[in-house]
Amino acid sequence: MMIALQAERVLSMPVVVAGLAAAVLAAVHVATPYLRFLRGTPRSVWLSVAGGVSVAYVFVHLLPELASGQRELSAALGAASGDRAAGGERLADRHVYLVALVGLAAFYGLERMAHRSRNEAADDAGTARRTDAVDANVAAESTSAAVFWIHMASFGLYNVLIGYLLVHGEHATSAVLMLFTAAMALHFLVTDYALFEHHQRRYHDVGRWLLALAVFVGLGAAVAVELPDAATATLIAFLAGGVILNVLKEEVPNERQSRFWAFAAGMAGYAALLLAL
How far is CA 33 from CA 107, 123, 196, 238, in A? Predict the structure, then answer.
């Protein structure tokens, strides 16, 4: 009986559509290193547009969901703990927002780690050039192996979460799911470009395939397990914090020479589309 029920669920239209969405997201990971028009300074118009779309999705769609999820989470925590002290009640009433803050801080820490590793590699390359070492250019191009694997583990979990939300996110219709997929695909374009800059050959040969696979792992987990609404709200909050940081860290620095008009156009256009639904 359980096997038949599970099979019926796997073949249902929402899961089929989610599978197609997962394939689109995985394809972005695989293809991004080959999109040469994204490279160079000033920053590609398309990356700025993609960043604007990602931020619009967070502020117009995800954050309102957080408000709804916060009410569910507060009710769940209240039922579990009974009477709460004033401090505990304030914490419960802001839980998802604190999780979003943690998500933002976590990915900021990862970014700083990658920059520090690249700076150290550049210093080592400078020393190698002075001593005529053969691998000087290789040493300068990317982060260390340890930082690469930390990044892959972190972004892999990030992708597992997105794969899970393809099935169990707040998608009332297939059209809403497609909007989520489009926003995440453009977001992946931004993050993949940054990861390729940081890790170079390691990301091209290994990283992009791992991240593509992680989306399907999340999709498979969603088919097998459905988390409580309070847990899903917590995951969405972490995702929101991560998206905000991963976009703004690419758009804000002066050396990026980002195109504000493209960022604003992507943000305004996608926000208008979301509000029209």
Answer: 21, 26, 7, 27
Contact 201, 44 (CB under 8 A): no
Q: What is the pLDDT of residues 214-264, one digit of tens each?
A: 999 999 999 998 888 778 888 888 988 888 888 888 776 655 667 788 888
Question: Considering the entire predicted model, what is its pTM?
Answer: 0.80
75 phi, psi to nearest 5 deg: -65, -40
Supply 168's token pair: 């169990």
CB atoms under 10 Å from CB of 172, counted, come to: 8
Q: Where are the beta strands (DSSP E) in 51-170?
A: none
Angle of CA points 165, 153, 168, to nearest 5°: 10
Which 3 state secondary structure label does DSSP give 189?
helix
pLDDT tens for 104-138 read 999 999 888 888 888 887 665 555 444 454 444 44
Q: How far apart are CA 150 and CA 130, in angstroms?
A: 31
